[in-house]
Amino acid sequence: MYGRLLNLAYAALAEKEFKQEKSNFWEEPHQKASLWKPCADKKDSERLGKPDKSNGYLMVSANGGLNQQRVAICNAVALASLLNATLVLPRFLYSNVWKDPSQFGDIYQEEYFMKIMKDDVNIIKELPSHMKSLDIESIGSLITDADIVKEAKPSDYLEKVLPLLLRNGVVHFLGFGNRLGFDPVPSQLQRLRCKCNFHALKFVPKIQQVGSLLIRRIRKYDASQSMLDKQLLGEFMPSSASKMNDPTRGPSRYLALHLRFEVDMIAYSLCEFGGGEDEKRELKAYRESHFPLLIERLKKSKPISPSELRKLGRCPLTPEEAALVLAGLGFKRGTYIYLAGSHMYGGESRMYPLTSLYPNLVTKETLLTDSELAPFRNFSSQMAALDFIACATSDVFAMTDSGSQLSSLVSGFRTYYGGRRAPNLRPNKKRLAAILSENSTIGWNSFEDRVRKMIEEGQRVRARSFGRSIYRQPSHFMMEGRND
């Protein structure tokens, strides 16, 4: 789609190699980030504390993949506190999309989770025996996503759910996707969500061990230790025995790229990606097979053209566009890139503009052996946990869709534990579309300048705006000398 720009990118990167120029996007640019306090860093006196008597039991069956489930767990903790309820360890629904039977204990350390949250919320592994025979649906205590609006307020739960809990002694949330808003929420409940996400949810040793192996192979040697390593890998954190920067042993730093270009994302977007009629037919057939509700909605609404969707910034970035952004930011051809996810739409031919410009691109599938990956093969959430670790502990994390759950959670984790040494690169897709619309005439210097300004704008330290994710912007609560 952008052959001319790609040729300019090749030439520009070759010149930078000759001049030994370095990209300045390997470092966090804003020193004032040190003034911001983590969202779970609150005084003990501000804790809500556990009630003397529980109002009943709160059950949650979370839907979605790893990242949606993680958000659901944190929301469940906050709701249990709000309703003075005892939380039953959340369960995960089996999905025909994800095809993963994993439960909480297959991904996270149950005992550790309960230990960290014990001073705030009562948590048990399963309902008491005398409650198990209850038909929760028949007594009216089954609550689906249809019963609770998206981004619901605490008052919605106090008005609709608390009476059920008091009457029946138990409520069961079935689905529970995105059903507690970020505002207005009392600061104590926000703190609990943060404590859950950033402190209580630790991956099980099996995931930590292979995650550590993955990172050591990306880095080529045990190049660094960080708070991010410690939080995500626990006792499997890479050794510090060989920290000498020996250039003959390979790169000591890497960039992780979350490229959301899987077929489901592409088809659902309704965008076009330069593949002509064959692509249109293929994506149309996929939508009709996998997204019947989308098809019905489209029949009732005025269509938006693919070109207009692109102008509005609603189209996923292609591998080609991601390569141009990285080149515009000055990352050299030899940059070591870890690609999160797999099964990119279009396969090798679609990936070629990226892999030809940046040949040192690896995935968990290329770095781990078949036997090492075998325990995770049929468990998409556990595979996603490996990507989470590799992205969160990278020297730079680049995303192509800042609205995705993985990008949001990973970038927030890096902000929380990165110590101003874990930059996140977040494109503004609407601004990028405007830049790329000039692909036939724009000069490379102008392209570089505009792309850099776009990314720098996304790196600015700012207070979390109303309604935005506390998981992505976890340090907004207290700036030195002020409260938000």
Would you write up a description of this structure?
- The strands form three sheets. Strands 1, 2, 3, 4, 5 and 6 form a six-stranded parallel β-sheet that branches. Strands 9-8-7-10-11 form a five-stranded parallel β-sheet.
- The chain has 484 residues and is an alpha/beta fold.
- It is built from 21 helices and 13 strands.
- Mean pLDDT is 89; it is low at 241-245 and 477-484.
- Strand 8 (337-340), helix 15 (347-357) and strand 9 (361-362) form a beta-alpha-beta unit.
Mean pLDDT: 89
Beta-strand fraction estimate: 5-15%
Low-confidence stretches: 241-245, 477-484
Q: Compute the separation of the termini in Å.
A: 45 Å
Radius of gyration: 23 Å
The shape is: globular
Helix fraction, binned, reads 40-55%
Key descriptive features of the protein:
single chain, 484 residues, alpha/beta, 6-stranded parallel sheet, 5-stranded parallel sheet, 44% helix, 9% strand, globular, disordered C terminus
Task: Offer a quick outline of the entry.
It is built from 21 helices and 13 strands. The protein is an alpha/beta fold. The longest helix is centred in the N-terminal third of the chain and has 17 residues, at about 5-20.
Provide the fold topology.
Layout: H1 3-19, E1 57-62, H2 66-82, E2 86-88, E3 91-92, H3 104-107, H4 110-117, E4 123-124, E5 142-144, H5 154-160, H6 162-168, E6 170-175, H7 187-200, H8 205-219, H9 227-233, E7 255-258, H10 263-269, H11 276-290, H12 292-300, H13 306-311, H14 319-328, E8 337-340, H15 347-357, E9 361-362, H16 364-367, H17 370-373, H18 380-392, E10 396-399, H19 405-417, E11 424-425, H20 429-436, H21 444-458, E12 478-479, E13 482-483
Parallel strand pairs: 1-2, 1-3, 1-6, 2-4, 5-6, 7-8, 7-10, 8-9, 10-11
Antiparallel strand pairs: 12-13
Helix pairs in contact: 1-14, 2-7, 4-7, 8-18, 10-11, 14-15
